[in-house]
From TrEMBL:
Keyword flag Ubl conjugation: no
Pfam family, one: MarR
Source organism phylogeny: Bacteria, Pseudomonadati, Pseudomonadota, Alphaproteobacteria, Rhodobacterales
HTH marR-type domain: residues covered: 18-170
Gene Ontology MF annotations: DNA-binding transcription factor activity; sequence-specific DNA binding
Protein name: DNA-binding transcriptional regulator, MarR family
Keyword hit for Membrane: no
Organism encoding this protein: Primorskyibacter flagellatus
Xref: PROSITE patterns: HTH_MARR_2
Keyword line: DNA-binding
Sequence intervals crossing the membrane: none
Gene Ontology BP term (one): response to stress
Length: 192
């Protein structure tokens, strides 16, 4: 692959050299560097997408869950019990989406719904023993690794990354998509 890339860049260099007699070596070099940076950026994006895809497969194989379903389990685990409304707020998605996720997790025996003793209209979500075991034994979440490393960065580095990632999202016409803060390459509403 590197030979093909080198050949492509060499051919492009030759075309630029012959097509623009007044072009300087510096201009051609800058053009080649831009192309190379574009390829490097696309490769980095692809690596991110591939890592989330591979983690999703690993999690599905080990725990029978999607990354989004697993994140719901983690959130409930961190708080002992939560209402669907609180889960939806924390994940940044609609209550209808959370209800669907909880339905699926309940069918798998991971969570249970109980009426609140303080307010009988309120439903609390808690983990079952199987849900607790799943959270404890699942592969290290890709998202958790990212969070640990991101939070270890200096504030200016965090701001720079956020700005760059938001810019990339805008470049891909994805800035306005309604998504949860979950690393998952699949369709959010396709939750098994």
């Amino acid at each position: 692959m590197q030979q093909n890339e080198h050949k492509r860049l060499s051919n492009h260099f030759a075309e630029l050299k012959h097509s623009t007699a007044s072009a300087t070596i510096e201009q051609v070099s800058r053009e080649l560097a831009k192309m190379n940076r574009t390829d490097i950026s696309l490769i980095a994006l692809r690596k991110i997408l591939r890592a989330t895809e591979l983690y999703g497969r690993k999690l599905a194989s080990a725990a029978g869950l999607t990354a989004v379903q697993f994140r719901v389990l983690q959130i409930v685990s961190e708080n002992a019990m939560m209402t669907p409304k609180d889960i939806s707020k924390q994940m940044g998605v609609s209550q209808a989406t959370i209800t669907s996720l909880i339905d699926k997790l309940e069918k798998q025996g991971m969570v249970c719904r109980t009426k609140s003793e303080a307010d009988r209209r309120q439903i609390n979500i808690t983990l079952t023993p199987r849900g607790v075991e799943t959270v404890d034994t699942a592969p290290d979440a890709l998202q958790q690794r990212y969070v640990r490393q991101f939070e270890a960065l200096q504030e200016w580095e965090q701001a720079q990354l956020i700005s760059s990632l938001e810019r990339i999202a805008a470049m891909l016409d994805a800035a306005e998509l309604d998504v949860a803060p979950v690393l998952d390459s699949g369709d959010f509403r396709n939750t098994h």
